[in-house]
Amino acid sequence: MSALSISFTLGKASGSGGANVEHNNREFIASNVDSSRVSDNITYIKQDVHDAYDELFSTALEEYNAKQKRNDRKIEDYYNHISEGKREEAFYEIIVQFGDSEVAPVGSHTGKLAQKMLDDYVREFQERNPNLHIFNAVTHLDEISPHAHINFIPYYNEERKNGLSKGVSMRAALDEQGFTAKNYKVNRLVAWEESEFKALEKILNRYGLQREVKNASHVHLSVEGYKESQDEKKITATQNWNSNNAVEQLQQENALLKVKNSKLESEKHSLWKSFYYSVPEKQSYVMDKLVEMNIPFHESENGFNAQECYTEQIRKLEKEFMPGNTSYRDTLRDTLDKIVMQSQTYDEVLSRLQAADYEIKQAKYTAVKPKFGSGFIRLKSLGEDYSEQSIRNRLVMKQRFEREVDNKISSAKNQDTLQVMTYKTIKHYTIVFVQGVLPVRKKDKRKPFSCVIYSKVGRRVYP
């Protein structure tokens, strides 16, 4: 009986490297996707997550709000309420795959078999998990090997004394499905994942296959790669014993080179994986280190893509990251903030960047390269406040704010009032900040500099 491995990954809506519905639905095309094969993908369910929340919880939400005597306890948008809270995840995603890019590539006999098994798994998932509402499910056939993405919302039905009678909770959802914690190591989630692995194994058996369990310490190696690593160890050990024989040594060195070359070929064809980060500094740190280590990666809409064979090194870099580490991206954010303050148009921003020894590349997305940097950095990858459109908006807001201040000062009848003096102070500091007379300090490196001043006319923010 032939054997195939099983890959099952659970991600969270808010987690790094977690759920990415836009990627699943190909609302943007990452570099590891063959755009000519996007139409081959199989979409089972495609429901907007907000619509899914309305379908599941609108009645319970109305009942809950009707019972509240205080308006501040009412929930206007349940999806936002869950997303912005810290107790529950708004939704989850699982990625499932049979085999890997070596044994089951798209279009091969095994790849087509894996596609059929994925189809069975996706179609049987909801029946097996009645408390996990699927709102998006797709099988991708436009990458190296077939794999399925399932996005779901976990919810409970049993009415509670406090809160909604029907609401979001992974723990409660699994409770209602009969999963209980066995001990501190095997909780409800682990028990459920074990159950899903058994379901995947049954599908394998249904098609006359059995499950191949790979050694956990070689989780990122294919079976062939693992054998190659063992061959390399054997050859290296043999070299130590036969170093006096020149011919044998050359033969052994040649064999070692062949093994290493085979490993490089395996890495070249390794499956590409997406990495996502909720903290821009962490993403910047990891990407800068990857450049230093000559590890290839492609920047995507929400992070970057790298080959699976480098996952271990990437995870190590993530653990090394410490908040406050500076990088080319941190410096670029600071430079952009100062230049935006001094500029009136987006073209002027680019001109000032060039004058500051940054190389500019304008295509679909504007990218810049620091003088001593090793690669271009897309402005949009610096954070939501640094995309081309965001910078244009900041320039418009800056000009509007400056006009408002001038108008308030000129229209005031009495120039000696506290209100007018406040506006004059704002204008003075605006000028000295733009001219660079006073240094700019940022409380949050991920956000642009802002000057917040309180007065009788209210709170004003100068971007």
Description:
There is one protein chain. A hairpin with a 2-residue loop joins strand 15 (451-455) and strand 16. The chain is flat and about 90 Å long. It has four domains: 3-213, BirA Bifunctional Protein, domain 2 (2-Layer Sandwich); 217-268; 272-320; 328-462, no CATH class. The chain is 45% helix and 17% strand. Strands 2, 3, 4, 5, 6 and 7 form a six-stranded antiparallel sheet that branches. A three-stranded antiparallel sheet has the order 9-11-10, covered by helices on one side. The chain has 14 helices and 16 strands. The chain has helices at 21-24, 49-67, 78-84, 109-128, 170-176, 188-206, 223-241, 246-268, 280-292, 311-320, 328-342, 346-355, 388-411, 418-435; strands at 3-4, 6-12, 42-46, 92-98, 132-140, 147-156, 167-168, 210-211, 272-276, 297-300, 303-307, 359-362, 366-369, 377-378, 451-455, 458-462. With 463 residues, it is of the alpha+beta class.
Structural Rg: 28 Å
The N- and C-terminal alpha carbons lie at a distance of: 66 Å
**Mind telling me the CATH class of the largest domain?**
Alpha Beta
Mean pLDDT: 78
Q: Count the DSSP helices.
A: 14
β-strand amount? 15-25%
How many structural domains does the protein architecture include? 4
Category from helices, strands and their pairing: alpha+beta
- Tell me the total number of β-strands: 16
